[in-house]
Amino acid sequence: GQQLNQSPQSMFIQEGEDVSMNCTSSSIFNTWLWYKQDPGEGPVLLIALYKAGELTSNGRLTAQFGITRKDSFLNISASIPSDVGIYFCAGQGAQKLVFGQGTRLTINP
Amino acid sequence: NAGVMQNPRHLVRRRGQEARLRCSPMKGHSHVYWYRQLPEEGLKFMVYLQKENIIDESGMPKERFSAEFPKEGPSILRIQQVVRGDSAAYFCASSTSPQSSGNTIYFGEGSWLTVV
Questions:
Q1: CB contact under 8 A, A43 and B43
Q2: Contact B107 A42 (CB under 8 A)
């Protein structure tokens, strides 16, 4: 089945640093999505990407849809304590989302 | 605007009992999806339903699991004769049209099942 490889699995950074994480796939997706999940909560959509090569921002977050449609990255600039959580990429296949394993972000004040 | 509502948020069952998880989609959404998340893992697709129809159940275990989305009322994910390995967070999501059309889907806050 389709699988996404998300890296890194975890990150420990200082407040104010920039963060970068990415996802790669062996399959092509027509849509890439990035979600954030806080403990005990459901995933919340951060950014949706619909076109290969598309670069989209949402505040301090920037995400890009790779040209090959097999990868995507998410950058967070000037991290703040509330950025702590688990970030998931998801590729939209036929009628379902395929999720990466997640990147756990920890911020040291 | 109410989001996707799931209940119960937390459920404890003994091995062999039945678990029923309910999901009310966002207003105006007729497409419902169920995902399962094991600890420290991403979400895994289970089933996609429209009103009264199962469209894709390729992620559902062959036995003990069933899902429905009746004409009236919430979608139900039913797990019979639960085992410890069923302990997980179960998320429901909904959309106005199929995910394949690029339409955004919204997730509920999840139901955490613990089997003791």
A1: yes
A2: yes
Per the CB < 8 A criterion, the answer to whether B19 and B78 are in contact is yes
Tokens (6 digits) for A78: 């000037």
Rounded to 5 degrees, φ, ψ at B100 are -65, -15
Q: Is B114 on the interface with A (CB under 8 A)?
A: no
Q: Is the omega angle on the peptide bond into residue B61 within 30 degrees of 0, that is, cis?
A: no
* Backbone conformation region of residue B64, classed left if phi is above 0, alpha if psi is from -120 to 50, else beta: left
Smallest CA-to-CA distance from A99 within A44, A46, A28, A33 is with: A33
Alpha carbons B17 and B62: distance in angstroms, whole number? 18
Q: What are the pLDDT digits (tens) for A48-98? A: 999 999 999 999 999 999 999 999 999 999 999 999 999 999 998 777 889
Q: Which amino acid, B54?
A: I
